[in-house]
Design goal:
Layout: E1 2-6, H1 16-20, E2 26-28, E3 34-36, H2 48-52, E4 58-61, H3 81-90, H4 104-115, E5 127-131, H5 134-148, H6 157-166, E6 177-183, H7 190-213, E7 217-220, H8 222-227, H9 233-238, E8 243-251
Antiparallel strand pairs: 1-4, 2-3, 5-6, 6-8, 7-8
Length: 274
């Protein structure tokens, strides 16, 4: 997949691609015409040149999901601010689910939303695994408890498991599906781990918000990523190698919330000087 040039028959010479591309792929020659620098090898396929060109003059190879639609140039008109804010305030972390699988076509929509999440330098290095087998989810639950029972306030894994069973709960809240985001490479640099974690959080948030629009519920499960370094059996159960940086449960909520939850005001410096 790549950007390979400019269709000179379509190009109007507006220079928007020159201004948009931060890597210098587009330039104006001595004849005042816009050209594409084929010699560079640093394109990260961010797609901004494609998105901004009013004439659809950017030539590509293998990029077949580009489209346009009403409102794309004015996103504020696609979803009204008040409606979006209401959705964000209505979203709750769901810890009670119906015993009902989510259809594959709805799960695919959630992954499609995460596909379009931004990432640092458009690296898109994340990978996903979805677990839907109750036995495997229970095994994952048990392995996480093995290294977190003290944090959970218990004296042994067995005590923790017994308590959760007695109240009908689990680490994954008995959700029918668990979606896990991971990276095949285990980063050594704390800076890179931070960047990957930011990317993971954004991508999974895209998926969780998409789930809300489909009548589904989610809950971020931070305990899984903290457990992997202490218990590699978790990776074996997931069938992956690398570094887990996020996960959420997915299913049909078994509860309805009638009001927004209170949240304290943000602490913001500089706002009062505007």
């Amino acid at each position: 997949m790549s950007v390979i040039g400019i269709d000179k028959d379509k190009c109007s010479g507006c220079r928007l691609c020159v201004q948009e591309c931060g890597r210098g792929y587009f330039f104006v020659n001595d004849d005042d015409q816009v050209f594409f620098n084929e010699g560079l090898k640093t394109c990260n396929i961010c797609g901004h040149c494609i998105a901004i060109c009013p004439e659809d003059a950017i030539l590509t190879k293998g990029l077949d999901d580009v489209e346009t639609y009403s409102g794309i140039d004015s996103p504020e008109n696609i979803v009204e601010n008040e409606k979006l804010l209401k959705l964000l305030r209505a979203k709750r972390s769901i810890r009670r689910y119906k015993n009902k699988k989510v259809p594959k076509e709805l799960i695919e929509k959630i992954f499609e939303a995460m596909r379009y999440a931004p990432s640092a330098s458009n690296a898109r290095a994340w990978r996903y695994v979805i677990m839907s087998d109750p036995e495997k989810i229970q095994k994952l639950n048990d392995e996480i408890i093995k290294v977190n029972y003290a944090y959970m306030g218990f004296q042994s894994p067995e005590q923790a498991q017994k308590h959760l069973k007695s109240i009908g709960r689990s680490i994954f809240h008995k959700a029918p599906h668990v979606i896990v985001l991971y990276y095949r490479i285990v980063e050594k640099s704390t800076v890179m781990i931070g960047l990957r974690a930011n990317d993971a959080g954004i991508a999974l948030t895209y998926g969780m918000l998409e789930a809300e629009t489909l009548g589904l519920g989610t809950c971020w499960i931070g305990m899984i990523q903290g457990s992997v370094p202490m218990n590699k059996e978790i990776l074996n159960i997931l069938g992956i190698k690398g570094m887990v940086l996020g996960a959420f449960t997915l299913g049909y909520p078994a509860v309805k919330y009638r009001r927004t939850a209170p949240r304290p005001p943000l602490k913001i410096k500089g706002l009062d000087t505007l």
